[in-house]
Amino acid sequence: MSFREDFLWGGATAANQCEGGYNEGGRGLANVDVVPLGKDRFPIITGQMKHLDFDDKHFYPAKEAIDMYHRFKEDIKLFGEMGFKTYRLSIAWSRIFPKGDEAEPNEEGLQFYEDIFNECHKYGIEPLVTITHFDCPMHLIKEYGGWKNRKLVGFYEKLVRVLFTRYKGLVRYWLTFNEINMILHAPFMGAGLVFEEGEDQDSAKYTAAHHELIASALATKIAHEIDPENMVGCMMAGAAYYPYSCRPTDVWEALEAQREEYYLIDVQVRGEYPNYFKKQLERKGIKLPILTGDEEILKAHTVDFVSFSYYSTRVSVSAENDEVEFTGGNIFDSAKNPYLESSEWGWQIDPLGFRITLNNLYDRYQKPLFVVENGLGAVDTPDENGYVVDDYRIDYMASHIAAMKDAVEIDGVDLLGYTSWGCIDLVSAGTGEMKKRYGFIYVDRNNEGNGTLKRTPKKSFNWYKQVIASNGENLEMPAE
Ligand code: BG6
């Protein structure tokens, strides 16, 4: 057997992409609520367009999402049927502290997640909790400017203390910030940043990132103090960068692009800013607001494991190579790799790139890894009963799990688990669409929010069940 016996197979979701119930249970408004479907989504999530309230010109998919707020029992039961060992979900901060800066938490919000965790344990499912998956109470954005403001560290500290105390014994695995490097690419989603005219955007992003790094280290400290059994991980949008060609300038470009994504994880794992990053700041004339004691905090409270999402590799190209075609891929673009096929959204499909990414991360950090997102966003066509034959998804996942197996079995990567992204169809973070589906479970809802919300297992449901039951040995396509 290549995967450890206690390998944590499962699936992943994020509160804002599945819960809905945006104004129920005392929940406050958050950045993720006001991010609409359509062409304004991108300028809003990147902080270029200020949009802090609902209007009647847009449709806001997170308001209802797939209504997991009311249906989590049914959904977790289906996860249990697939044999999940873990379920990765996130906490909506504004359910616990509706404004973010209150003295006392909201009991209804705390109870909601407690019910979810209890439901998971009923099926032997270990919760894996992302403390913040792109969400930030709107009040903290309007009043304090989001993570640019050091005060957010204190509010986050309060949040995590409440969570670790309340859920002691119920939750053991924690991730501090989803895809922390997304601050650099989608700063409104990653850190509640909206840029003012003429503002030094790099400086704002690195400052916000510093605050999240301090908050993450403090969360690690508090988690360990409250329960030494707690395991805390960082989480990055992972993907190896390839040089477009062996032209040395392309190779250099790829190295620099990769470092930009690594620098935050370098801090979370090694406990200090890497020299290449410090030099880069010097060149840009940016001074981080590092307070007395910050360096010690970062050094003393490094993470227990490294988690990441993987969808595709990226290709870097130097300015000397013109006429290169570009393609999409998890918010940030990539040059098109002529050797790879792409998904319907232009994300390049590269199972060997997954093995390469696993090896790069393990070589660099020598810490246990956890794959917490991977999957194929595709258009599904259900039959009249809502059943989807999604062989394309099975093919994608089987090839990626096989590559992950090679990384473990042949290369010796230490891997704790694998949670596929969007194990039940949910709202896309990048586009706001429902049509971009990742799930083993079909949800009857379209981009405009119409549909019965009925859940129907797809063909991949039984396939994944068989993968888990065989601990990743049987990746065969099941019969119809
Ligand atoms: C990751 C995020 O970036 O990719 C998820 O952590 C997101 O929230 C996932 O949904 C897939 O991206 P998209 O844009 O297809 O939803």
Characterization of the model:
The protein has 480 residues and is of the alpha/beta class. It has one domain: TIM Barrel. The chain has 15 helices and 16 strands. An eight-stranded parallel barrel has the order 1-2-3-4-5-7-13-14, surrounded by four helices. It has a two-stranded parallel ribbon with strand order 6-8. A two-stranded antiparallel ribbon has the order 9-10. α14 links the parallel β13 and β14. α3 packs parallel to α5, α7 runs parallel beside α9 and α9 packs across α12. The site of 6-O-phosphono-beta-D-glucopyranose has 15 residues, from loops.
What is the secondary structure topology, with strand pairs?
Layout: E1 8-12, H1 15-18, H2 41-45, H3 68-82, E2 86-90, H4 93-96, H5 107-122, E3 126-132, H6 138-144, H7 151-166, E4 173-177, H8 187-191, H9 201-226, E5 231-237, E6 241-243, H10 248-270, H11 275-284, H12 294-300, E7 305-309, E8 314-316, E9 326-327, E10 334-335, E11 341-342, E12 348-349, H13 351-365, E13 369-373, H14 391-409, E14 415-421, E15 441-443, E16 455-457, H15 459-469
Parallel strand pairs: 1-2, 1-14, 2-3, 3-4, 4-5, 5-7, 6-8, 7-13, 13-14
Antiparallel strand pairs: 9-10, 11-12, 15-16
Helix pairs in contact: 3-5, 7-9, 9-12, 13-14
